[in-house]
Amino acid sequence: MKRFAAFSTALFLLLTLAVLAPQARAQDEIENPDVTIEVDGMACPFCAYGVEKKLKQLDGVAALHVQIDGGRVAIKLEEGATVTEEAIREAVADAGFSVRAITWADGRSSESSLQTG
Fold first, then answer.
1. pLDDT tens-place string over residues 53-78
2. Which residue from 61, 111, 56, 63 is spatially nearest to 81, judged by alpha carbons?
3. What is the pLDDT at residue 25?
4. Cα 60 from Cα 82, distance rounded (Å)
5. For 48-55, which contacts have Cβ atoms below 8 Å and span 24 or more sequence positions?
6. Rounded to two decimals, what is the model's pTM?
7. What is the dihedral of CA 93, 96, 97, 99, to 10 degrees?
8. In sequence order, which ranges of the chain are alpha helices (DSSP H)?
9. Distance (Å, rounded) from C-alpha 4 to C-alpha 2?
10. What structural domains does the chain harbor?
């Protein structure tokens, strides 16, 4: 009987997490990111953590959200901050991955820097 109770409790907790996890992930997403990066080869949470860790070290990064499924990273910069394509590509490469594309919110090419504010 105790095994059944433990199993039922564990099953209930797993189902609860399965329902709540997508909602928690959606809350972390960044609205109107300043930069969106497409990363090749990022397929697991460990990969995402490595990329996130390196990008957070860039000066001016206020927040970021990694979407493993699409291999995308959305970055919100601090007010007045500047980040370059070179810095982004280097950070992603330091994590062991390569950048497929960089999209700037203001429409400038990925070869230029972005300044908010």
1. 999 999 999 999 999 999 999 999 99
2. 61
3. 45
4. 7
5. 50/95, 50/96, 50/97, 51/91, 51/92, 51/95, 51/97, 53/95, 54/91, 54/92, 54/94, 54/95, 55/88, 55/91, 55/92, 55/95
6. 0.69
7. -10
8. 2-28, 45-56, 85-94
9. 5
10. 1-28 (no CATH), 31-115 (3.30.70.100)
